Structures
1.
Amino acid sequence: MWSPVPWRDVSITDGFWAEMQRRNRERTLPAEYRQCRDTGRLDALRLRWQPGQQPRPHFFWDSDVAKWVEAASYSLATHPDAELEAHVEEVVGLLVAAQQPDGYLNSYFTVVEPEARFTDTRDAHELYCAGHLLEAAVAHFQATGRRSLLDALCRYADLIGTVFGRGPGQKPGYPGHEEIELALVRLWRTTGERRHLDLARYFIDERGRQPLWWEVEEQARGGTPGHFGGLTKTMRDLPRTNQSHAPVREQYEAVGHSVRAMYLYCGMADVAQATGDGPLWAACERLWDDVTERHMYVTGGIGSTASYEGFTADYDLPNASAYAETCAAVGLAFFAHRMLQRDCDGRYADVLERVLFNGVLSGVSADGETFFYVNPLASDGTRHRQDWFSCACCPPNVARLLASLGGYVWSVRGEEEAALHLPVTGSARVRLGGRDVTLEQRTDQPWGGAVAVRVRLGAPARFALRLRVPGWCDGARLRCNGEPVAAPTERGYLRLDREWRDGDEVALELAMPVQRVYAHPEVQDDQGRVALQRGPLVYCFEQVDQPDAPLARALLLPESAAPAWAAFDPALLGGVVAVTVAGAVEEAETTAGTGHGSPLYRRARPARRPVVLRAVPYFAWDNRAPGAMRVWLREA
Amino acid sequence: MWSPVPWRDVSITDGFWAEMQRRNRERTLPAEYRQCRDTGRLDALRLRWQPGQQPRPHFFWDSDVAKWVEAASYSLATHPDAELEAHVEEVVGLLVAAQQPDGYLNSYFTVVEPEARFTDTRDAHELYCAGHLLEAAVAHFQATGRRSLLDALCRYADLIGTVFGRGPGQKPGYPGHEEIELALVRLWRTTGERRHLDLARYFIDERGRQPLWWEVEEQARGGTPGHFGGLTKTMRDLPRTNQSHAPVREQYEAVGHSVRAMYLYCGMADVAQATGDGPLWAACERLWDDVTERHMYVTGGIGSTASYEGFTADYDLPNASAYAETCAAVGLAFFAHRMLQRDCDGRYADVLERVLFNGVLSGVSADGETFFYVNPLASDGTRHRQDWFSCACCPPNVARLLASLGGYVWSVRGEEEAALHLPVTGSARVRLGGRDVTLEQRTDQPWGGAVAVRVRLGAPARFALRLRVPGWCDGARLRCNGEPVAAPTERGYLRLDREWRDGDEVALELAMPVQRVYAHPEVQDDQGRVALQRGPLVYCFEQVDQPDAPLARALLLPESAAPAWAAFDPALLGGVVAVTVAGAVEEAETTAGTGHGSPLYRRARPARRPVVLRAVPYFAWDNRAPGAMRVWLREA
């Protein structure tokens, strides 16, 4: 079993991810604070709302604030900032002050529907909000050493543990929107209090048992519908929608709301790791395979349909109508990171990298202040990022992932090995071979293929370093102190096991040609189509880059006939590698008689005009003139 | 100006269409009678319904019965049948007896909501039902010479003319679902009473004027919502949905509910022809072009979306989710037939033929007893015809079109010319060159390309015959009395102007190779795809014909590499020409490493395995083992 090197022990000092963290810190976190303040989310915590007053708080709101506190806390620890810290402490103070004498902490159910506390676990997101508050509390404590929020949330967790469970007088319930499970495991890891882990395991184990909790709960309410409506009428498929259709160890397919699914699977993996629960691990692996082999966009986006924000049939991955919620991408990164710790298998890291660089990053604009909730892979030009959402889960979710990205860079196995998953420029402090070791990294990823790690330690020590060779890379050259070396590959990682001396450097050069990517042929919307990828970045075509080619009728020429050029353009989108490729446009006009009573149908294939097409990284789309966008273009 | 040779003067005695009429007569009409009876539609006409009783009549129901009477009347006239006649007279008796003393005739608003008569012309389909009753009455009179239903409907039309209009005390309203306009013109043509035409013109002219009638009407109801809900909330785009967004002469795009649109455009063309209204003709032509050049499936189906059963954006013609309601196809045939009479332009006949042979005929099963309401161009195997529908507009709509098909075969221009639009085997009685002429036809269409017309007349006479060369035909050979002749082509018709003697025969041999059809490249769902057509028939691929090729992954090889064979198979689907063509299947498995952390995405194009694919006429799909179906296959 591996464990991540914690985010607080990893610095990211330069390059792509440092720039993303800087934008997150300087633009996104302040913008999100303003939104939370201006929309009433902070005021709601003052518990002064009166019936009839606008805005009426929403039962989601605490979770938005909590995720912002979590994100800001990570950032403060690595990059102190007095103004941000003042805002964090203001919000933490509001949260602590909003706690009720019995430990309860939820602004909505304290003032808007106090009589309804813990009566609608299916829809009312109380346990979901509690989970995000728990994560915020752990992060705030780890970042600042201050215990006020952590202590408050420990009391709230204890109250929840009193209310829910299989004991006499307890509700045998569990959350309709998962999240608290993984949060309770984090709390247990921080406090060491076994009851937090036990409560997480209770929620995991209880889920999907018969009789269905939602029916029991609705009866207990005297038949009053949940906050999203009556169970029988409006949400016939609800048990699948919130993954309560079967006990989790008997779940074989990824179904329902994709964010809920990701948070559940993370909680399952956490409990499995903490308790050594083999059947639970096996369920995680089955669900992972189903998500990534049948339900994942090439961007790492998941959840194709807007109707319940979730998974549909196998290989149903439409591009224009893709939902691919930003939160679901963030959730997949969380899930991948947990699966990766089991045996350091590069296929988990490949998906982690795919979703981070594409489906997660697309959620934020180049200026850091507008956000996609939905991430389509094709657009007619009408899809744009927004300042905020009434349901604003996504913006702070990306912020907390970016701010804690250091935690995704390395893992260690005891003191014996360290594995590099995500190249960054910066350094990590680890304990290896009985020594305190600093691993200094340099990389020009994702634009170039150079990855170097210099080992710093007081005296020589023996341990292994694993350097990941990404799945997209066909040619990796490894050097140690400048000399080519050979190293065995284990599950996608080159493994160098040797005695290391201070200053030793291993360098990896990853070939990064522009690659054509083809989808599994059952993906109807991608048949006969191709996407471009270079390194970890999926590319897309935006209309603004094709003055002569209407994207709606553009296609790529076959690889053999059409070389692709990749070149860094410092003036483009803040500096990105653009890809240029030879393509064609089908002409709408036809000179041949159509012969079918309408120019809609013709006897000849549309004529083609050669064009040069330019692609930019998908994550950077919709930052210039509005227009059509395509990830997958026909190939002919 | 041309006029159709009436259905009662044209017999269809053998071949494809005779078989379709036989099936319609022997299977479909009796099945529809049983459905009308068993679902309570006939009982509703007895006006004995009491509150609380099930089934509760629906305000559509009279129209279903009316269309059945209309269809059965046509059939009785050409093919007497005592049992069918007894049923027709029973239903006609019920209708006549259901008329109220003041002339009102609507079973629903007589017994279920008597207080709501003519208060919701937007949703309640009263004028729509009246229109279908009018058509039934005209057909019944023409078929049987009996006046009872016609007289009843004349009284009802007069009542409607009293209620609606611009005079004092009248409602300045018009129907939310068009139909009565074209029906009133038919009534005028039958009775010669000018007021029927005037009322039709009133409805046409009034439509789309400001203030919007629906708002005036809703105010008059004191704000009570219409039968489909409140105007402002649920149907924001209602004026476009029912084509009341602008006066009809200022309409430039086909919008909204497609059946309503077709019936409106037919009414507009009828009024334009009857009154010589140039701007109204111009509007019809613009709307025709918009429908057929930007909104028509290759099957002639129209109206892509289920959400309001109507037209969407230009070139938005998705295949699997195609709505393409059978009634809309029938309506397009009606509209095409009217436009064709203006100047005998073959492009209207081409669309008429396309929709008849494909989008209309697909509405009925091979056994004549189950029906499609929605006609997709691709299916995953879950779309099947049904016995009946709660909204059962489509089955009797096809029945009345098939039973009156003789009316679509010929048109005449005075006594100077006759034009053959639709080859059938049978004969037509016409007056040409001052003589009573019988035009005897033989054809093996749609399976073969032979069309022959023998002229029968007492003494020689000079007139012109026009024989249509369909748009799909590249090579037509014309003979007169066995000798090749040349004839000029006018708008798609070969014109032979000569003195005709008894027994003269003109014969046309139409080349009928299998053709590949390509869509306008703006049709996203058809890009890179091809459909097969032979003669007027669009073909489709059904899974049942491809034991080795999963259709979801099949494609056609390019034309040059893949000849197609057409062969009549008497054992297949009652005898059809099947088309066999060389294609390929993309393999789901990949031997090359995928390199992307998931077998969903690969670096190599899917491998292809050659297969032989068989296609059958689209109209005949879903008559064998359930399975996937595709009209458009990728070409590569």
2.
Amino acid sequence: MTLSNCIELKAPYLIFIGDTTSPLYAKTGLGIIQWRRGLVAGQVRFEGNDLDMGVPDLTIAEAVAAGVKSIIIGVAPVGGCIGDDWVSVLVEAANAGLDVVSGLHRRLAEYPELKAAADKAGTSLIDVRVAPENLPIGTGVKRTGKRVLMVGTDCAVGKKYSALALADCLKTRGGKATFRATGQTGIMIAGQGLPIDCIIADFVSGAAEAFSPDNDPDHWDVIEGQGSLYNASYAGVSLSLLHGSQPDAIVVCHDPCRESISSCPGAKVPSVEDCMDLNLKCGSLTNPNITCVGISVNTSQMEESKRQPYLDALAAKTGLPCIDPILNGCDAIADRLDII
Amino acid sequence: MTLSNCIELKAPYLIFIGDTTSPLYAKTGLGIIQWRRGLVAGQVRFEGNDLDMGVPDLTIAEAVAAGVKSIIIGVAPVGGCIGDDWVSVLVEAANAGLDVVSGLHRRLAEYPELKAAADKAGTSLIDVRVAPENLPIGTGVKRTGKRVLMVGTDCAVGKKYSALALADCLKTRGGKATFRATGQTGIMIAGQGLPIDCIIADFVSGAAEAFSPDNDPDHWDVIEGQGSLYNASYAGVSLSLLHGSQPDAIVVCHDPCRESISSCPGAKVPSVEDCMDLNLKCGSLTNPNITCVGISVNTSQMEESKRQPYLDALAAKTGLPCIDPILNGCDAIADRLDII
């Protein structure tokens, strides 16, 4: 198994946000800068845009001079299409030899001027929402190296953040670790990965196997999860990722202020314990030694005074490290991984 | 929810097998004739082909005169491509106003002569391996009518056969029932359905919701399953189908002579009880009243004298009707459905 059919981005990056003034819509760009500041040379924003992501403003020419290899559209997909003023900047970048990277619904090659520019300059148009071809069928065959998968009580409860924080924590402690991205924003941050939610259902477990290949015995792949076994819209995706990842360890990610499942009217968010139990039961199919090493809680919506008491109570109930990565860091979970 | 974006085939059919002489490769055609004899006007096979499916040999002209609406390639996908001699028959059929239906990997429209003929005659080229567009995301919202889903201890253990036999049994007893196809051969037999295994992972549960829509309170959708929660290659597909189907009842399908999971080297086939328990546990997410109404066993590979004793022992152990639909029919399972 190889990573040959993963998406791969070339650094350093120029982050393009155009006239996007909302930090929420610019979360991809902000995420890349937060987690991969060293790979970002600068930003491109239109005149009068006050949203400053804290990196130098560069023209395309300045970016080229600074050695930039890719321009990344740092805006989360909303409408899916982009305006002419955006396209003209991307065309200029392609003409100047930069790869263009997008997470938008509409493919970059569907903009004829952009396609022509990229063809002429020999640069790549990379749509991170498009799955690679020739993905294999999953086999369940055991791989070398170790894997920890983020699982969630619902979608969007902090799996990506937890995985990034845990991977950084392991590396800071001197361990070998790689963040493995499974969603668009994660791929932009990691510079590689597989957009699991764009893959034909039959190939998801095989894709998950391919993108965390054989590795050193003491290396951890820290895998961003997707969906939740308790979210009826996406649980099949979560299960395929669980089986294909063959995790030695899971971290349950949870938002205590979420009451109902995001995409399923009337469906309740499960308890952390139920979520853990079902993931361990299902995950044992491809890794009988699977274990839960901790709970990562997004407490940002709780009153400040209630955050640590909540985590302490959950730790007492489950007997597991319960952290908010922003409040506590991930050392308590990393300690558990060290002894696997 | 509507069935508007399902595949739909127009009867009567002409089944085309060309020079295919193996009943195994012609299983699609044979299946259509076995289960939908009334919809089949005839067969087209090349001169010298001794494989007779038991329906009249017709030329395209004779088929048109007999009112045939579709020519179906009755051969299971093997290489994926077809030869010039096959294409010329299909072109003749399209020219004569027939829809052309295929389960092959390569799309019919990729054969230029065939596409031109269909465009000119205004007929359809229907690839049953191609998923419809604009599928919804699953919501878990409850639908009216009742549903029974075939689940399996592995792939290819008799789910399609069991669903077809059970739907026929319910109708013979005067009930309202519809076989819902989820795979290519099933779609060919049913004349409609969704090729679940060709759908982007995020949309599988939504597709399953869409293709068994609201119905009369006493109507049963009898849903062909896919894969197995215990097959690490395809379990995510099975889970999406389970959640989207919201089954009131499941039937566990099993092949007692299968020792290891088909696509996963070294993985053991689970017990019928474990398979039932996990499906009931996961299925309760979208239907808390889910129950198991029986076990359908493919005993064809067992010694004849051991078949009924095996079924009796399994019934004693599980307390459920255990049948081989070929040996026993499906009445014992239908009896259970009648009281739900």
